[in-house]
Amino acid sequence: MIRSAFRFLRTNPLSVQQRMSQSCLAGKVAIVTASTDGIGLAAAQALGKRGAHVVVSSRRQANVDKAVALLRSQSIQVTGTTCNVGNAEDREKLVQMTLDQCGGIDILVSNAAVNPFFGNIMDSTEDVWDKILAVNVKASFLLTKLVVPHMEKRGVGATVKVVSAGRIQTWTPSVQGLGPYSVSKTALLGLTRALAPELAHSNIRVNCVAPGIIKTRFSSALWENEGIVKQFKKQLSIKRVGEPEEIGGVIAFLCSQDASYITGETITVTGGMGSRL
Ligand SMILES: NC(=O)c1ccc[n+]([C@@H]2O[C@H](COP(=O)([O-])OP(=O)(O)OC[C@H]3O[C@@H](n4cnc5c(N)ncnc54)[C@H](OP(=O)(O)O)[C@@H]3O)[C@@H](O)[C@H]2O)c1
Q: Any coiled-coil ranges, and where (predicted)?
């Protein structure tokens, strides 16, 4: 079976080329939020390496400048601006700047999230809930709402939301304490399921990627703690923490033509944690 598949690929180079061109994103414009570090930056790199013009942003100008310089040094077409996704004016500025400088929008990767609280969920306050839901959930929807009319003008679009495998799988007791954050990620799964059939009419796909523990600043309290990592590894088939690039590539796949029949779904990328939807 495998031998015949290789024989097919050897004797049909055109079909290989066709597959490659389907994953190519040349001519596409991609907004990635919170993209000056970690998973967002890796997603911008993955999209950019496939030919998309990427629009990177985060709250701090210095971080934007650094990310733009890095991506340019990798020959990626990039535009950068500050955008705190929790701020309506910033979201509008991000979209308008993209339209002015890139002429349209094809892809939105909604990656920004905050977690200002760690502890028993019964100890979380209204302020914590307001902040988490505003940034992680409401901003993701409102940004989608802003970009959809422009995707409709292009006749096609793809959006990916970064959620978390932590909400799908009950992680080890030592990392319980992420209650409100996990609820916000669960809400994004619901939002994805609600948006997918509605936006399919406009040829816009809506999906999620759910990372396990990935080596970024955001999760450093987990992967820098040897005890937590040891417990996690017991649940993993691939016995290591993931790298941001291992999420970026999956995001680029979901945005590409290779994923043209996938919508309303979540791909978990956890090193085989065994998470089930
Ligand atoms: N790392 C993991 O293990 C893991 C696991 C599951 C899910 N996730 C999810 O992955 C996403 C990215 O996390 P990460 O681990 O890549 O984090 P990270 O490496 O710490 O990067 C966070 C990025 O977000 C920006 N940012 C923070 N708040 C923002 C806001 N309100 N508006 C716009 N940008 C903002 C930061 O730049 P500024 O400081 O300049 O704003 C930075 O570029 C989050 O949705 C997180 O929930 C991560």
A: none
pLDDT by residue (tens digit) across 98-112? 999 999 999 999 999
- Mean predicted lDDT score pLDDT of the chain: 91
| Domain with 253 in it | 22-269
**Ligand 1, pocket-test mutation among 56, 58, 85, most atoms within 8 A of CB:** 58
Query: How far is Cα 178 from Cα 38, in angstroms, rounded to an integer?
Result: 19
In a domain, 8, yes or no: no
The CATH number assigned to the domain holding 217 equals 3.40.50.720
- Contact between 144 and 110 under an 8 Å Cβ cutoff? The reply is yes
Number of domains in the chain: 1
- Is the minimum distance from the CB of 219 to ligand 1 under 6 angstroms? yes
> What average pLDDT does range 62-73 have in this prediction?
98
Are the C-beta atoms of residues 106 and 153 closer than 8 Å to each other? no
The answer to whether residue 261 is catalytic is no
- Please indicate, yes or no, if residue 77 is contained in any of the structural domains: yes
pLDDT at 166: 80
**Residue 145 burial (CB count, 10 A):** 11
Say what the pLDDT of residue 232 is.
86
What are the tens digits of pLDDT across the range 146-204? Answer: 999 999 999 999 999 999 998 666 555 445 788 999 999 999 999 999 999 999 999 99
CA distances from 31 to 6, 52, 57, 104, 203 (A): 37, 10, 8, 10, 18
> CA 219 from chain center: how many Å?
15
Q: Does the CB atom of residue 84 touch ligand 1 within 6 A?
A: yes
Q: Are 237 and 184 in contact (CB under 8 A)?
A: no
In a domain, 55, yes or no: yes
Helix axes 61-73, 38-49, angle to 10 degrees: 30
